[in-house]
Structure formats: C-alpha cells, structure tokens
Amino acid sequence: MSTKNFTTYHPEEDQFISLDDVNGEPHTFKLNPALPGRVILDFMFVSGSDDSSKLAEAINTVLDKAIVAEDKEAWIEFSDDPRNGVTIAVLSEVVGHITSVLSGNDRAAE
User: Fold this and answer.
1) Which residue in 49, 68, 59 sits closest to 90, CA to CA?
2) pLDDT digits (tens, 9 = 90+) for 68-89
3) Rounded to 5 degrees, what are φ and ψ at 28?
4) Cα separation, 68 vs 65, whole angstroms
5) Could you give the CA distance from residue 83 to residue 67 in angstroms, rounded to a whole number?
6) Which residue in 4, 15, 3, 9 sits closest to 110, CA to CA?
7) DSSP of 47-64, one letter per residue?
8) Contact criterion met (CB below 8 Å) for 21 and 84
9) Phi-psi region of 7 (alpha: psi -120 to 50; beta: other; left: phi over 0)
C-alpha cells in the first residue's frame, strides 16, 4: 500500500484586515490562519455567476469562516453601520483579498 503525504497551508504570520470608519479611524479584524478549501471552492464557483443570492451566501460564509471568533461581533457591528460605507464593492474586495491570502496564493502579503 502506498501513502501520499500532503503538506497543509500554515502561514508564517497572523493576517488582518483593516477598514476605516466614518471618522477615518481604522478598525482591524484578525483572520483565522486558513479557510477550508470547500469554502474557497464554493465562493469561486458562484463568483462568476448571475445568482446574486448564492453569491451573497458565499461571501457571508467566507467572512464567517475567515474572521476569528473574538472579532466577529465587532465585524458585524462595523459592517452593518451604514455610515461606514461597507458596500458590496468593498465586501467583494475584502473577500477577494481574504480568499487569496488564506489559501496561500498571496505570498507577497506574508
């Protein structure tokens, strides 16, 4: 019997995202060390589709799995405040960065 051993992704340092609020004050949120591959695949599958409800679900799943538990409440409060301007375009940019960094594809960010 043959066994193939695979190396999993382990970032060299913690990853964060930071967004400025309505007053220009930065809010920083820590990310988990990696995203489950299934979450990234689901996001990739719907990112090019016209199904906005599935895309919204995939974006929410990425954010839910990416942000550490200790920062989730602060993230929800920040992103739900309409004064902070967390639009669909901003969310798309954030999720694109997160999927790249937490999949190990964005080596320049490390």
Assistant:
1) 59
2) 999 999 999 999 999 999 998 8
3) -110, 135
4) 8
5) 21
6) 15
7) HTSS-HHHHHHHHHHHHH
8) yes
9) beta
